What does this fold into?
Amino acid sequence: MSLCAKTKRWLKANGDISLAGKTVLVTGANSGVGFKTSEVAVYLGARVILACRNTVKAAAARDSLLKDYPDADIRIMRLDMASLKSVAAFVKELKETGTDIHAFVNNAGTFAPPGGKTADGFDPVMGTNYIGVYYLTELALPYLAGLSHKVVYINTVSVAVMAAKPIDYSDFYCLKKPGHFTVYARSKLCLAKYTFALAKRMNGSGVQVFMSHPGITITPLTLNACGKWGKRLSAVAGKLFNSTEKSSLALAYILARHPLEGSQVGPHLLFNCYGYPRINRLPKKAQTGAEELIDFTEKEIERIHIE
Ligand SMILES: NC(=O)c1ccc[n+]([C@@H]2O[C@H](COP(=O)([O-])OP(=O)(O)OC[C@H]3O[C@@H](n4cnc5c(N)ncnc54)[C@H](OP(=O)(O)O)[C@@H]3O)[C@@H](O)[C@H]2O)c1
It folds into this structure.
């Protein structure tokens, strides 16, 4: 199903940008916000790379896009954010193939996946939503900064950051099991702290760093978060919450409006849960304390021998 008329009007009103000749890479692109972000990029004329852990799901997503955009140039790359080895192999492939990238959207994320720990022994939510993104970013940045043009780099955070409790490093190893939402919110707080510091570090380089958040929209992730209520909700909830399409316009907003680096972009109504994207103020707690967190993360990654 192609983009709705309202989205097309919004895109036109927001600069009518063309991404012809540009490449957009989206992680977790087979579903939800990542799929729709990829569709928006294809609609605007970009070549798109779907970076997914499940290549069968990725192929289905590509086929679905090709039905509506038969001339689209869509490539699939394998990437499992819960495995540092997979992240390293992915970045190696990017470099070895000299892949050109103009916008890189770190969208993949998880709420309460089944299974105990990641391949590297981390809590699966912390490991996927924060450590995987941190490692991917640090490995990919030197390559992206060396490209001959500017690159927009977006990490996907969440409205949950507003409710996040202070970081507890025991979350990284599932030691206390404080509850799914607590760990999810803290994983996104870690990502927001890191990304805010990163944007400052990269300011003036060829890589412009931003944060996006989708507000609240019904996707497999949110249905999973609702537990047994998920299936009942899905019938009506799509209408009550932001449409996934509206929640997927942050990349287009950033490319059209050029907000200040380090800005957080996402829906702005009803406590940032609903509406079209705008710049949202990042909670104070996400603007401080990155040094200790980064130090801890670096040591944890060093501890793991990645071949
Ligand atoms: N939906 C919301 O209301 C909401 C609110 C705030 C923030 N977010 C954030 O928005 C992003 C997209 O979520 P969504 O709502 O669109 O959920 P979704 O439809 O479930 O999509 C999540 C995507 O991430 C992928 N993924 C999960 N674990 C992965 C891993 N280890 N390696 C690679 N890919 C992995 C999933 O792949 P599989 O299909 O293989 O599982 C899927 O493609 C996430 O970062 C989420 O935290 C969503």
Notes: The first strand starts at residue 23 and ends at 27. Residues 8 and 16 are 9 Å apart (CA to CA). The pocket of NAP is lined by residues 28, 30-34, 52-54, 57, 79-82, 107-110, 128, 156, 158-159, 213-214, 216-217, 219-222 (CB under 6 Å).
